[in-house]
Amino acid sequence: MFTVRRRGTARLAAAIVASGLIAVGSMAGAGSAAADDATPTAGAKATLGDLKTFDKAVIHDNGRDDNVSAGLFEMTVDGGGTIQTYCIDIHNPTQGKAGYKEVSWDQSSLHNNPNAGKINWILQHSYPQVNDLAALRSAAKLSGDLTPQLAAAGTQVAIWRFSDNADVDAVDPVAEELADYLGKNAQTLDEPAASLTLDPPAVSGKAGDLLGPITVHTNAASVTVSPAPSTPEGVKITDKDGQEVSTAKDGDALYFDVAAGTPDGTTSLTASANTKLPVGRAFTGIDTTTQVQILAGSSDSTVTASATGTWAAKGPIPAVSAEVDCDKNGVDVTATNEGDQPFTFSLSGKEYTIEAGKSETVTVPVDEDQSYKIAISGPNGFEKTFEGVLDCDTAGSGGSTTTPSSSPSPASAGGSSEGTADTGSTTGGDLAETGSSSATPVIAGIAIALVVIGGAAVFFLRKKKPAAPAE
């Protein structure tokens, strides 16, 4: 049972939520220590580079025409690898060298877009996934030769028409013909699975038991599994039979095996792999509002995911995790109590109790494009911090901006002139050899002001449903 006793005021709640920077109050009766845990990312993290392969497009908006560059960005993946992406947020400027994370569609601007599946079809049936430009020209019945730059521009224009409902045209007639062909023939495809996630990302239980299961979801052939360096003696990572493991594959279940008598505490495990990322995965800014991207191609790249385990001999034993919920315009904070006593915590003038063996979710409202910081702490060193930026809508969804922007750098007409695409088709999501651009990022971003640190007092409560694979 999850009970609530109200103490705060509506005026305080409104002021705190409007600030855009949210801090959650202390938790009491945790019964065990937990490590500080900044909002985890599962899958790939990458740094935005230049717009590499592009041509010109024109956005028609509110009686004015804006010339923009349309094409492929390149990102450098943390730990190794390179990915190519298209924009799915035409009116939002990019932040040069911004950090990005791989997310599910429901944690991005695609969460309420009925055409998201058509964007995925375009990605699968155009450049760079179809790297044979002669074949693409023939399929689309284009009137002229198709270069990498024109293919990228036409593909981007077609995507913008579905991602932003934009009135946009490619400047070059061949690129415009390709955009029309892709838009007319697009079909709805399912969302691609994540490159790597661990579900759930936090577990708890009594010392002497197996804590889990934590299910591995990945497109990699196998992942390497390693405990945190600070993992205490008497704790190991095992399968359901208690056999210690150092590798796992998709669908495998992992456990923290905590020996009886191990002092109350917490630790974590990390899974990592080298794999091509699934085309169609969304990427949003980690700590800043920046143009949302969608994956078009990938080299072998490093992906990681982590999970925590908390244990105690008795009392309440909480596991706490958080994830963005774009449908609710907020962050879902989930607390599970695997102890033998109720778990009680105070939260910005409210007091909550989770009975033993129960799990509940609190949705913390966050304004669009606002930074949030959800800090949970309690006695015995229990601490959790989840922070990030809510980026759930396209910049034009609430009305067009005055300055559309598709790149962090100015682009000359005609796009990149260096390099040509490799001929022949690609089916594995490899990066096309597209040459490079010398453009340097110059468009300044929009700073997010971190205003008031306070406790969020307005929440929506719901019973925790059976978890879908974490993203």
What would you note in describing this structure?
The chain is mainly beta and 471 residues long. Helix content is 12%, strand content 37%. It contains 5 helices and 28 strands. A 6-stranded antiparallel barrel has the order 4-5-6-18-17-7. Helix 2 (116-125) packs antiparallel against helix 4 and helix 4 packs across helix 5. It is elongated.
What brief labels describe this structure?
471 residues, mainly beta, 5-stranded mixed beta sheet, 5 helices
Strand order in the sheet with the most strands: 4-5-6-18-17-7
Which strand-content bin applies to the residues? 35-45%
Low-confidence stretches: 1-38, 397-471
Largest sheet: 6 strands, antiparallel, barrel
Average of pLDDT: 79
How many strand units? 28
**CA distance, first residue to last residue:** 27 Å
**What helical percentage do the residues reach?**
10-25%
Quickly give the structural class.
mainly beta
The DSSP helix count reads 5
Radius of gyration: 24 Å
Please state the overall shape, judged from the principal axes of the Cα atoms.
elongated
